[in-house]
């Protein structure tokens, strides 16, 4: 890939990511979009559960395997180093789009707080969750996270520097604010259906395992004592809940 093509590829990927991110909010929140977590034709519950678990597994496998340093080393022999992050983001979008398209609704309610004060508070929390996700990406390094820094440096015949250890903003309160935001957004449903509950339970389990057992292992290998000390001092997901582990 030439430098200009890599740059265009990264920019197009970023635009696809923005649209996918906005659709994710609407999908989980049942807002304005033709297909959301609780909309569509309902099939047999057992079949729906199997399909939904398969879709979430595809996402989990893509997200976990492609993020590992060993995979990246092999992958970068095939694609340019500068396009690695954009490719990761693009494949993440594909995995998410598969969920949006093929997700099977299971609309029986587990709780229904619609038109109550509690429901309004939960709706507000939903937006707070997404705001935490988005703002945390800027605290860590939004443009590195989504590959723009890498493709821009490459265009200028440079190599982007890795952000290094970060402990700013929400990262002072918890080690994984982006995931805290997702957890809030996924659970804060004024009307919680069986399908949405399945989504929230599986994604919560995946986030805990992927972050504590995979991402942190890589972060310790990359950042050493800085991250080990950070882990001792700062809790993983909930401010004030445990002093790290
Ligand atoms: C999708 S972000 C998620 C970050 C974090 N788990 C969170 O939930 O806010 C994943 C990237 O963040 C990086 N990362 C996570 N914590 C970091 C820290 N304290 N300092 C620098 N980079 C970090 C990882 O190396 C990885 O490239």
TrEMBL record:
Q: Which UniProt keywords apply?
A: Membrane, Methyltransferase, S-adenosyl-L-methionine, Transferase, Transmembrane, Transmembrane helix
**What GO CC terms are in its UniProt record?**
membrane
Domain NnrU: start-end pairs: 54-208
The membrane topology of this protein is: Multi-pass membrane protein
Task: Report the subcellular localization.
Answer: Membrane
EC number(s) from the headed UniProt entry: 2.1.1.334
Any one GO biological process = methylation
Q: Per its UniProt entry, what is the enzyme's top EC class, as one word?
A: transferase
Q: Where are the transmembrane segments?
A: 7-33, 45-65, 86-104, 124-148, 169-188, 194-214
What GO molecular-function term can you cite, just one? methyltransferase activity
Q: Which reaction does it catalyse?
A: methanethiol + S-adenosyl-L-methionine = dimethyl sulfide + S-adenosyl-L-homocysteine + H(+)
Which InterPro entries does the protein's record reference? MddA (IPR054700), NnrU_dom (IPR009915), Nurim-like (IPR033580)
Gene3D superfamilies in UniProt: 1.20.120.1630
Biological role: Catalyzes the methylation of methanethiol (MeSH) to yield dimethylsulphide (DMS).
Give the UniProt family note: Belongs to the nurim family.
NCBIfam families (UniProt xref): MeththiolMtaseMddA (NF045656)
Q: Which PANTHER family match?
A: NURIM (PTHR31040)
Q: What is this protein called?
A: methanethiol S-methyltransferase
Organism annotation: Thalassovita gelatinovora
Species lineage: Bacteria, Pseudomonadati, Pseudomonadota, Alphaproteobacteria, Rhodobacterales
